[in-house]
Design goal:
Two copies of one chain form a homodimer.
Chain A: E1 7-11, E2 17-19, H1 22-29, E3 36-41, E4 48-51, H2 53-62, H3 70-81, E5 85-88, E6 94-96, H4 99-105, E7 110-116, E8 119-123, H5 125-142, H6 146-164
Antiparallel strand pairs in A: 1-7, 2-6, 3-4, 3-5, 4-8, 7-8
Chain B binds a DNA duplex through strand 2.
DNA sequence: CCCCGTCCCATGATATCCCATGAGAACCCA
DNA sequence: TGGGTTCTCATGGGATATCATGGGACGGGG
């Protein structure tokens, strides 16, 4: 499945077009619908979410799971699949940002693409900066480090495999 | 997995290129993506972190762990995967330091590579010296020693295996 | 008939590739 | 052990390809 990394800031031209970062395009190229990205408004931020066909397939399958509450399923179906817009890349690797989505995220002149592994987000650049600043405060305040997180996760994994035995 | 040791200081040329120390390259050669290093800004220092594909895979897996809370996950996805830049080695074993990362670490003329086992860091040389001096002070003040650390760790391991039984 | 969206081409900036060079380290042979 | 030779490695510069971005042309739908 496609992996999206790094942050890129690209311009939105007067036609509403914006280049998908070349790195993202390379990831998309491996998906089952290389020329299409799916966009929807983020549930948690004033930003857009993007993904490829394969990710949506997985999400779609998850919805079949009996472990989900009815209202969780309802929410996803309404706010993700209900808002999803498939967008085609043009010959130069650009998309036209749908007006409704651009408005939702407050995007006008520029758009920040930020990779989040299996998906990516599109932000109005200043909004993204503000969001990151807020997060960084938390990192400092809680004194979080990478190795800590890995240790925590692997400790949990070990405990679970221990229980299972 | 690759192991990075020792410290090297290399020059950054006017194109922003810098040689990866040959020793590090040999370690990278064993990873599943020998020609690629992943760089990101350190969470805790004005320095860059670097690792190989395999390390990132482990980190990525950790993110799937149910032991992490939502905001920890959000943080990692934003500050690690969102900032992660995959960089290709050229034929001579150099990389181009992305401008944003060089700025973050204050690197201009020279870069210090310091091995940290599974990852390495890249510092502006003077900043690294200052950082090391500060650390050394702590060692003296807290009277830390190697044998102490090893003893402490093995005591902990014994306790944990005791619990499990 | 006009407007909007799509396609195609042009352009400058940037990154990538390829070759050259010199210093230093390792090696080998006497 | 000393001297010379060979290799590796860091570093530099020029040529080439890629990418983001802008504008015009074309065509379908209202």
């Amino acid at each position: 499945m496609a992996v999206f990394l790094s942050t890129y800031v690209n311009k939105v031209d007067r036609k509403g077009r914006v280049s998908i970062p070349a790195q993202f395009r390379q990831s998309l190229a491996k998906s089952s619908a290389p020329g299409t990205v799916y966009l929807w408004p983020s549930l948690n931020h004033q930003a857009l979410e993007g993904a490829d066909q394969d990710y949506l397939d997985v999400l779609s399958e998850s919805l079949e799971s009996p472990d989900l509450d009815a209202d969780e399923r309802e929410m996803i179906e309404t706010f993700i699949f209900g808002k999803l817009i498939p967008v085609q890349l043009d010959g130069e690797g650009r998309i036209v940002l749908p007006q409704s989505l651009a408005d939702f995220a407050g995007i006008t002149e520029e758009a920040s693409f930020i990779g989040r592994r299996k998906t990516f987000q599109i932000w109005e650049p200043k909004a993204l900066n503000a969001h990151e600043a807020a997060l960084r405060d938390q990192v400092v305040r809680k004194d979080i480090s990478l190795s800590q997180i890995i240790a925590k996760a692997s400790r949990g994994a070990a405990a679970r495999s221990g229980e299972g035995a």
